[in-house]
Amino acid sequence: MNRFVLTGTPGSGKTAILRQLELDGLGVVEEAATDVIAVAQARGVDEPWQQPDFTEAIAALQRRRQLAADRIRADEPVFFDRSPVCTYALALFLGHPVGPVLAAELDRVRKEHVYERRVFFVVGQGFVTPTPARRITPADAARFEELHAKVYRSLGYELIPVEPGPLDVRADFVRAQASTT
């Protein structure tokens, strides 16, 4: 199975590209962090990313979603909105420890070659639209983008930049690049 990661800084347009790929009939897997945040906020935790187990919860949900996607779309390409490597970068960015769940998932992803080595890195558009789950400043988003890219490269991934532009152009680029793998 071709498992492609779509990643980049918050607000770069990853989810819009993912939605377009889904509308075009391709398999997609949602970002886990947004759902972890939504559930925590519904329980009254305003900033769940401050909790020390935040990245552990994300890694656990990412694993479940990846394994479920394999059962449903065993022979089709699937596009993932982020991966455990992103969660590792997030832990570093937030100053959180890498807990046992995230460490085990990073090890499994490496040993089993879970994701394609070519990763679609959606380049930031120079602005960030705040949401309840996205409260990062543009300056911090730029710092996170740089750290994010560094982490992926340090783990042997090749980043394929998806430059800012119209949604259809970006989605077409991702589709075209994925078909050459």
List the keywords.
alpha/beta, globular, 7 helices, five-stranded parallel sheet, Rossmann fold, 181 residues
Describe the structure.
- This protein is an alpha/beta fold.
- It has one domain (3-179): P-loop containing nucleotide triphosphate hydrolases (Rossmann fold, 3-Layer(aba) Sandwich).
- The protein is built from seven helices and five strands; from the N terminus they run βαβααβααβαβα.
- It has a five-stranded parallel sheet, with helices on both faces.
- Helix 1 packs across helix 7 (167-179) and helix 4 (84-94) crosses helix 6 (138-154).
- The radius of gyration is 15 Å and the shape is globular.
- The termini are close together.
In spatial order, strands of the major sheet run: 2-3-1-4-5
How far is the first residue's CA from the last residue's CA? Answer: 11 Å
Q: What would you give as the CATH superfamily?
A: P-loop containing nucleotide triphosphate hydrolases
Report the β-strand fraction as a percent range.
5-15%
Identify the CATH class. Answer: Alpha Beta
